[in-house]
Request: fold
Amino acid sequence: MVNDGSGTGEKRTTGKRTGAGGNNDKKAAGVDRRRFLQFAGAGVATASLAGCTGGSQSSDANQQLDGPIKIGVLAPEPGNNPIGASIANSAKLAANQLNEDGGVLGSNVEVVVKDTKEDPATGQRAYQELTVGEQVDLTTGVFTSEVQLNLMSSIAQQQTLHLNTGAASPETTRRVAENYDRFKYYFRTGPVNSHYLGQNMVDFATANFESMGWDSVAILAEDYTWTEPISEALNGSLGDAGIDVPVNQRYAGGTENFSPIYDEVASADVDAAYVVMAHTGTSAVVQWAKQQRPFGFGGIHVPMQLPSYYGSVNGACRYAVTQNSATPTSEITDKTVPYANAYQEANGKYPVYTGYITFDAVKMYAQAVQQAGSKEAGQVIPKLENMSFTGTTTANLEFYGQDHQYPHDVKYGKEYAWPLWLQWREAEGSGSQQVIWPDDLSTTEYQSPPWV
Amino acid sequence: MVDVLTTTINAVTISALYALVAIGFTLIFGVGGVLNLAHGAILTVGAFTAYYATSALGLGIWVGAAAALAVGGLFSAAMYLGMIRWVQDEPILVMILTLVTSIAIEQFFVVTVGTQAKAVPSLLPGQLTFAGLTVQTNQALTFVLSWLLIGGLVVAVNYTRTGKAILATSMSAKGAALVGIESDRMYLYTWLLAGALAGIAGVFLASYRTASYTMGRGPLILSFSIVVLGGIGSIRGSVLGAYLIGFLEVFTVSYVDSSLSGLASLVVLVVVLLVRPEGLFGRELAEA
Reply:
C-alpha cells in the first residue's frame, strides 16, 4: 500500500513541485506551451460538449455523450510488476464490463495505459501524454507517492479528474485542504492514506494482540517516505494500548542483511516483530523463517499481499501476518469475489490491492458521470463528493469533505475502508491467505509459528 | 544489547562469503590486470541458476549449486573469450564493457524474473546448537566450504603446473611467454575460476537472504574495499581483507547504526587508498 522510492526521490519531487508552482506566476517557455495546450484543449472540450449537449447542465441520465469516455491509466511496469499489472488490467476489466452493459450514457469506455516506471519524471511525461495528447477525461492509477506528488501541479493545471488508486502519502490530500479550488480534481479511492494505515495497525493491535499472545513487540519500519506517517501514528499509541515496545527501529532503506537486526529483536525477548515493509520485505521475511527466529512476524508487509507470493519465497511467509485491502476469497461486499474471479479468468492470476481499488475507481467514476449526465470535471466532482459507493473493498466507499484534514481522501473506519489482516498458512502443499481479522471476515485464528 | 558472541558468529560466516567473492575479483585483476565490474553480476547469475534449477526444474539445491558453479564459470569464461580478450590492454574499454555487461545482466533478470526477490532453499536447513550458541547449519556450511575452496585454490596455484603457470603469468606475461606459457589460456582459466567462485557465492548469498536482480551490487562494492585493503592481487590479503570488512560491517550494524553498513567499508576504502595504496600485503602477483 504504498509508495516507494527513496528520500532522494522525494527531494527531487519537492523541488519539481516548487518549480512548477512558481511557474504559475512567472513565465517559463515550457509551461507557456503547456498552458496554451491546456487552454486549447479545454476550448476544444467545451466546444464539443456544447455541440453535443446544447449547453445543457441537466443531470438527465438519458443524455448522450459526444464520443467515448477516455480513461488514462498510470501504472508502474504494467508488463511484469504485479502492482502495475493489477492497476492496468483492472481498469480494462471495469471498462469491458461497462461496455458490455451498454456503456456510460451510451458512450463506450476506452482505456489507455502508460508506464510510470515508478519514476517521477517518467510519470510526469506519461501524464502529459495522456491529458494533452490523448485528451483523456479521467486519469487513474499511480502507485508511487513520489510520482503522485510530482503530478499534483499538473492535475491542477489540466483540470482533469484524477483518482489515485495506489499511492498512500497523506501529503497529496493535504494539498487539497490547503487550496481546494486548485486541487479539487484530485481524489484518492484507496488505499487509506499512510496516517490511517498506522492508525489501523494500532486498531489491530488493540483488538488482537492479547489473544495472539503479543504482549511486547519490536517495531521495525523501513526508512522510506511512505512509512513516516505510520511511524508517527505508532509512536506512543501502542504503549498507550498497554503493549510493551522495547525496540522501535527505522532501519535503513536497502537493508539486505537482517541478522543483526533480528539479533537485537531476539535479545529484547519480544513476542513479535511488528513490521512496516515494502521494498525490503522479502529479505526480511525469508531470513526470519530460515533462521527460525523466536518471535512472530506481522504488520504491513506489501510483498506478502500478493496472492502468488507463497511460491516465490518457497513458503517462507508461512505463519507471517500482513494487512491487506482484500483477498480473492474474502466476501467484503458481494462485488469482491466476482471481481477477483473475473480478473483471474481474464489474466490467469489474482490481482493485488491496487487492482481492487482501480476497478472500484473506474466503476465509481462511471456512476458519477451517469449521475452528472456529463463527463465535465466540474459537474462530476460534486457527484463523487456526495456519493456512497459499494465497491470491492468496502460497502461504503466515500470521500472526506472539504472541511476535513484530508479532503477527497477515502474515508477510513469500520463502516468505510477497513483493511483486513491475513495470515499465510499452508493447505495441501500450497499457501493460502487466511483472514484473521476483522471477525466478520475471518476464516481462522492466528497461529503461532511452531518454532516460537 | 546483542551479545558479542552472536555478532561474532554472524561476522565470521558473512566474511567467509565475502572472501569467496573477493578472491575471484582479485585474481582477475592480479593476473590479467583487468578490473571486472561485472563480477557482482556473476553472483546474480549463479543465484538465479540455482533458483531456476530448484523452482522451475524441480532439482535439489545441491544440483542447483553445482549448476551455479558451472554456469558462473562458463559465463565468466565466455565474457573473457567474447569481449575482454580483444580489449584487455585498454582499461577504459574494459571498464565500460564490464559495467555495461553488469547492467545488461540486471535488466535481463528484471525482464525474466521481475523486480520481486525470490527465495532459494538452504543447502543444509536447520540449526546447530553448540555450547549454548545457535548457528544456522547453512552458515556453518558456508564457512567450511569457503575455507575448503580457498585452501584448494592456494594449493592449486602453488603446487600444480597450471597454477604455477598462472602465477608466472601474473608476475610477468612476457617472462611467462618466454618459457612457453600461453598467457591467453592462463587468463581464461583465471576467469573460469573467478566466475565459478562467484557463482557458488551467489547461491549462498541468495540462500541466506534472497535472490534479486540487484544482489550483486553490494558484494562488488565490498570487493573493492576488501581487495584494496588486502592489497590488489593478493589472495592472502583478500582473505584477511574480507574478514576485516565483514567484521567491520556486522559490528557497525549491530552496535552503531544499521544505516551505516555500506558506508563503513567505503570509508576504509578511501582511507587505505590515501594512506597505504598498496594495501596490507602489497601486490604479490604483480608484474615487476
